[in-house]
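Appendix C. Worked example: Quinol monooxygenase YgiN
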Amino acid sequence: MTKTLYAEFTVKPGSEARVAEMMLELTRHVRQEPGNELFLPYTRQENAREYFVFEVYRDEAAFQEHISADYGARFNEELALHIEGDGSELTWLLPME
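Step 2, the predicted output written as structure tokens:
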């Protein structure tokens, strides 16, 4: 069964350019993961500091490989310095089939 989620976070004022750069780099890495089926980062139209990232992984093993990647750990460590709150808010999704 696929693992599907979205992550949301809000960037602190002044960190917009750095986080955009970080997201582009992370996106390139994640899309190369064999088990990644979709990785789509967005910013909200009405507030570009608010991010929404839709992610789909082939299965639990693919997701575990994703979260154990060293580039992801580096991303999350630096992201914590640039966002409001304690981290990304994750929402897990189930298909309606």
